[in-house]
Amino acid sequence: MTTTKGTLQVIDVGTQAYAETLALQEALVLERKADRIADTLIFVEHTPVYTLGRNADTANILANADELASRGIDVHTTGRGGDVTFHGPGQLVGYPIMRLRFPEQGPVWYVSKLEQSLIDTLATFGVTAGTDEVNRGVWVGQDKIAAIGVRITQYVTMHGFALNVSTDLSYYSGIVPCGIQERGITTLERETQGVTMLDVKRIFLDTFVGHFGYTSVTQGNDDK
């Protein structure tokens, strides 16, 4: 079921450290809970960082302190669901700050809509992707191409998805991605040719707007 949701505000912060974007998310969540802003989607490419979700096992970070320092990788504990993952250049990260309409729009509905938006985006580039019954996210065969980890409080969402576009996959050697040892990681660039981050953002936004039923899109700013 898709219902009309009105206007979506989009904020593209470019490349930004994880802590800075997290602070922006937290500020926007408070604004959304108070109905002072519309639903908002943040686009960002993070500087290299490993993030741990609420259920993460720290043993899934394999890199030691020296290795983290030599590659300039930060480590952050977060309030999202899931285990450990990587964010970095060449990866499209999206953080929707949305008010859900319970009970028809619950967590499973929301995550499924995110997954389908990513699947349809990949299909536009000729890549066949799907979901997994056990592990959330989007997969191309046995390889994960997009991770999803969210948090919902007072019906408002934060955190979101990370889609590997042209990500340097060597960063994943320092972790057990999402705590899953037997599966691989891939990128859109590996699966197809001639993709740009700008094209991926544009197509994902169109797909996201369609799945969530927004009637208009505005460009916002990050001066919260």
Identify the CATH architecture: 2-Layer Sandwich
Specify the helix fraction band. 25-40%
Biggest sheet descriptor: 8 strands, mixed
Tell me the distance between the termini.
Answer: 33 Å
Which whole number gives the mean pLDDT?
A: 92
Return the string of H and E elements. EHEEHEEEHEEEEHHE
For the record, the CATH class is Alpha Beta
Instruction: Give the low-confidence spans.
Output: none
- Rg from Cα: 17 Å
Q: What is the H level of CATH, i.e. the homologous superfamily?
A: Bira Bifunctional Protein, Domain 2
State the shape.
Answer: globular
* DSSP summary, beta strand count: 11
Q: Strand portion, in percent? A: 25-35%
User: Structural class, please?
Assistant: alpha/beta
Q: CATH topology, which one? A: BirA Bifunctional Protein, domain 2
Give the helix tally: 5
Write the layout of secondary structure elements.
Blueprint: E1 6-16, H1 18-33, E2 39-46, E3 49-52, H2 65-71, E4 74-77, E5 84-87, E6 91-97, H3 107-124, E7 138-140, E8 143-153, E9 156-164, E10 184-185, H4 188-191, H5 197-212, E11 214-219
Compact description:
The protein has 224 residues and is an alpha/beta fold.
Describe the structure.
The protein is α/β, with parallel strands linked by helices. It has a single domain, classed as 2-Layer Sandwich (BirA Bifunctional Protein, domain 2), CATH 3.30.930. Helix content is 27%, strand content 31%. It contains 5 helices and 11 strands; from the N terminus they run βαββαβββαββββααβ. Strands 1, 2, 6, 7, 8, 9, 10 and 11 form an 8-stranded mixed beta sheet that branches. Strands 4-3-5 form a 3-stranded mixed beta sheet, with no helix packed on it. β8 and β9 (156-164) form a beta hairpin. α3 crosses α5 (197-212). The longest helix is centred in the middle third of the chain and has 18 residues, at 107-124. The chain starts with 5 loop residues before the first strand and ends in a 5-residue tail after the last strand. The mean pLDDT is 92.
